[in-house]
Amino acid sequence: MVQLLTTFFLFDSLFSFKFTYWINALLIFAISAMIFLYLFYSVTIELPDDGKDKNIWYYALVPAFLMSQLGMVLSFWPVGIFKGSIYLVAVIYVLSSLIQLQLRDRLFKKDWLTFVWILIAILFGIILTTSWR
Known about the structure:
mainly alpha; about 80% helix
């Protein structure tokens, strides 16, 4: 919970500076990479083998790259600072949950489908609440 709140404040601060899209993408990548690295280490420390067989780059940098691409899209999308930050935090929540389940070998089809439906709901929320004027 604190991770999501911290991420929200970081993204909110980032969007308030009104940087160009590529600076937003780089900074969102850096923030997301730190968040996913923290998630990786906090989950793998509880595993019996301390996650030695897990590839850190796959679990931290790939989702961070996806977040940077989404942040770049939101730089062009006509959403406000608050809404853009909320959307990014919602995607961080979904990706973090999927990564956590995968690291613990508890990711089943039911869980995967649940988070796909959450992502679809987020996408519809983004489209329906966007003011195109």
